[in-house]
Amino acid sequence: MEQVIINGLYLGAQYALIALGLTLIFALMNVLNFAHGQMYVLGGFITYVIYGQLGLPFPLAVICSGLTLAAVGSVIERFLFAPVIKRSAREESTMLLAAAVAFFLDAVILLLFGEKQRGVPKIINGVFVSDSVVMPYDRIVVGVVAMAMIVAFMLYMQYSKPGRAMRALAQDRIAAQLMGVNVDRYSTIGFALGAMLAGLVGGLLVSITGVNSGIGGSISIKAFLMVMIGGAGVVGGAIAGGFILGMMESVGLTLLRNFGDVTYLVIFALLMIFLSIRPHGLMGKPWG
Amino acid sequence: MKDILEISNLTKRFGGLVANNNISFAVKEREILSVIGPNGAGKSTLFKLIASFLHPTSGEVRFRGQRISGLAPHKVARMGVVRTFQETTIFKSMTVRENIVIAHHLRSRASLAGFFLGTSTAQQDEEEFARSADEIIDFLGLGAYRHEMASNLPHGHLRALGIAIGLATNPQVLLLDEPFAGMNQEETKRAIEIVRGVRDRGITVLLVEHDMPAVMNISDRIVVLNFGEKIAEGTPKEIQENPKVIEAYLGVEDTAIGI
Amino acid sequence: MTARQKLGWVIASVAFLLVGVPLLISATGRTDLYYTLTTVALLSIISGGVWLTFYIGRINIGQGAFALIGGYVSAILVTQYGVSFWLTLPLAGLFCAVVSIVIGLPILRLRGVYFAMVTLTMTEVARLSAFALPITNGAKGIVNIPLPGAVTLFGVTIIPDFATLTNPRLAFYITSVVMMVVCFAFLYRLVHSRVGKICQSLQQNEELASSIGVNITYMRILAFAVSSFLGGIGGAMFAAIAQSMYPSSFGVQDSVNFMLNCFLGGLGYVLGPMLGTFVLYFGWDLLFKTGDFQLLIYSSILIVLMLVLPNGLLSIRLPVQKRASL
Question: What is the mean pLDDT of residues C91-98?
Fold first, then answer.
């Protein structure tokens, strides 16, 4: 029982970070970043190269993952999304663009890194064993780091100038503009930040589950699930969604193991029921 | 005259805000009853509650003795209580005639499948809708715009189209939401005649309005709301002399709300 | 164009597709084109379903799920229960329609990106379920699906057993083209009848549509059910052609492509999905020669397309929904 909870918390922290990135982008631009999973994968591969292949320290590698994705995110927002949003009157265009970007990143990742599953040496050996819980140390470290990042992110959004500007932008675009917030600049910063979060998680998790070029799409979908559960565009919702999905996965994998791993079907069914009662998630704003 | 609509103890809360508080009144068949009150008095909410676009927190609305509050809006329309909308709520990319024809939906005798297959019942319906639409267009003076895109209509005629759409449903009660909004004197005179004409067709008219002279001119009776509550009810003369009403309007002018 | 002229064009086109094309193919010996054209026909049916969901104002990126489900329903019924393929075709469609009604009830009131998000997840969940459920045989999929059998009525063979044909590809081609023509004729009639006007009304202004008595929930679910039906029969047909069905047969990329087909072909035209599918499929096929770079080039072209033509290929007749203003 405790094992299930601890696993759930560990997964939840990772997922929450992924969901935070996605929900930030959605809150700022009403764009669903289909490429979010691919950004995670890219982050994983960068850490793989820097830490796994070049042998540089793991924290450095993870930071590089984050920074690279931030750069990639800024470029994508500034040169692709911003123009399309301005020019197009339909929501489908940005969605198709997001999908195209996801495919593009998939293709790039495949070309650069190949198809094989990649892993890196464990960052810390050993396992924590107690009566009820068995947890490898590296997972504990990664889980704690993830939670620290969540807290750091929330503090940043709450108290820093860019954070406040972005929150104003997310709540009311026009009012924010009237108050002098540079909408274009903060959209770019926000997208970059969201991408960075995905990259950081990818970098962290490559040390535990490895990475391969094919999982991008599934990670994006999981991120969507979290955002749907918790509510799109709300920080608290992303965190809630992340932890809920992490917990459900942990429970599902344990309980439903005998039934052929239909965890996600069950989760989806529950989601459908949940959405009938609360269509916009636990805390979601009714946007769009 | 019988009561065609009974509003009983109608209350609507949005979280902590009480938009309508314990409102009760009855509407008599074939009368023109106006609901007035300062901005924010809860008139829009009341309208939405009557047409069942909102469900009450407590209380109910009855149409010919049958409860309609809490039903789905299309069902209430089907029963004969039809709402028109503020502003330019029309089907923008259809012509004026198409707008009115499609509003005959409730009068279809053919089923969806019938319309798809083009059965004779469906064809009869189509002919009837076309005939009725043309008649309504003439009644409202929209003849010149019959085949114009609805979005191209000048403002005053847009309101007329809104009323036309309401008429096409063959309602028993028509709720007009600010029918005289944004009109000059000429347009208002015409609109008043149209509303009288609607009543003469046997339809009970309930309207929300701000234009006081028009309201006093056209209404058989008036209900006054303030701060979500009903403060007065009566003929135009009674309302004009009612001290509570005077205070409600004067009071608002004194403060600097100015919404 | 008058109605008679239009009908003339339709008959001519159908004749060309059913007779002209096979003649050309046998003349040039390019029998590989049968598979390509059959695929285009089936994909356009599936995209037509997505188009219908657009018509009621929803962005549907979940059609891949229904193609997958339809394919599996047919495959399972044929291989495990010995049902005739031709019967499984409508059954697959109906099964998908029922599933879509169940899912549609909670989600059809969501709009825009929210709805799209849920449908996209649906595709992935369908794939995961295909892996996990015992009846679908997991990653091994369902293989060795026999070719469609014969259909006889009162001793007369209406459809021959495909296994007995020398050129089953031609038979699949003809079946698919006929299906496509029927489906699009259906969609065309739907859109141009009063039913279509009702859908337009709820797409343009839901509240107003409610006030004139349109049962919005019912209409949306109906449209979504028809849309999924089309996805299901397309998928079932694919299962018959490929004679196999895997969890990866239809995925997220396919769902996105179906939407893309509609968008590029023009959301205002019934035949839009046909055109879009044709262009995109041949485009993708042509890029096959670029090998590893196929996806890269394809997605780059898409990105450029979105930058240059953000409002779709053909002009859009349906009202443009203005974004919540900047």
Answer: 97
Look at residue B69 and give its three-state secondary structure: coil
Q: Which of C204, C208, C218 should be substituted to probe chain B, the one whose Cβ sees the most B Cβ atoms within 10 Å?
A: C208
**A103: nearest Cα among C311, C281, C277, C301:** C301
Quote the domain boundaries for residue C236. Answer: 34-251
Cα dist from C257 to A10, C210, C260, whole Å: 36, 33, 5
pLDDT tens digits for range C204-248: 888 899 899 899 999 999 999 999 999 999 999 999 999 999 998
Tell if the CB–CB gap between C59 and A92 is shorter than 8 Å. yes
How far apart, in whole angstroms, are the C-alpha atoms of residue C270 and residue C202?
A: 18
Q: Distance (Å, rounded) from C-alpha B135 to C-alpha B127?
A: 12
Contact present, C19 and C170 (Cβ < 8 Å): no
- Which of B73, B81, B33, B11 has the alpha carbon at shortest distance from B218? B33
pTM value? 0.87
pLDDT at residue B106, as a whole number: 86
What is the Cα–Cα distance from C98 to C101, expressed in whole angstroms?
Answer: 5
Is the pLDDT reported for residue A28 higher than 70? yes
DSSP 8-state class, residue B18? E
- How many Å separate Cα C109 from the centre of its chain? 23
Domains held by chain C: number: 2
User: Given C208, C214, C217, which is nearest B89 (Cβ)?
Assistant: C208
The answer to whether the Cβ–Cβ distance between B77 and C215 falls below 8 Å is: no
The ipTM of this complex is: 0.86
Which chain C positions have a beta carbon within 8 Å of A88's beta carbon? 306, 310-311
CA atoms within 13 A on the CB side of B258: 3
Flag whether pLDDT at B5 surpasses 70: yes
Would you state the pLDDT for residue B35? 93
Q: Which residues of C touch B108 (CB under 8 A)?
A: 194
Spatial distance between the Cα atoms of A49 and A52, rounded to a whole number of angstroms: 5
Per-residue tokens: B201: 């067709």
Angle at C72 between CA C71 and CA C76, to 5 degrees: 125
CA distance B181 to C63: 46
Query: Same domain for B99 and B84?
Result: no
Same domain, B98 and B82: no
Nearest to C68 by CA among C139, C129, C144: C129
Residue C125, domain member (yes or no): yes
Residue C308, Cβ neighbours under 10 Å: how many?
Answer: 10
Asked whether the beta carbons of residue A268 and residue C121 sit closer than 8 angstroms, the reply is yes
pLDDT at A101 over 60: yes
- Clarify whether residues C3 and C116 are in a common domain: no
* C140 in B contact zone (CB under 8 Å): no
C208 with B98: Cβ contact below 8 A: no
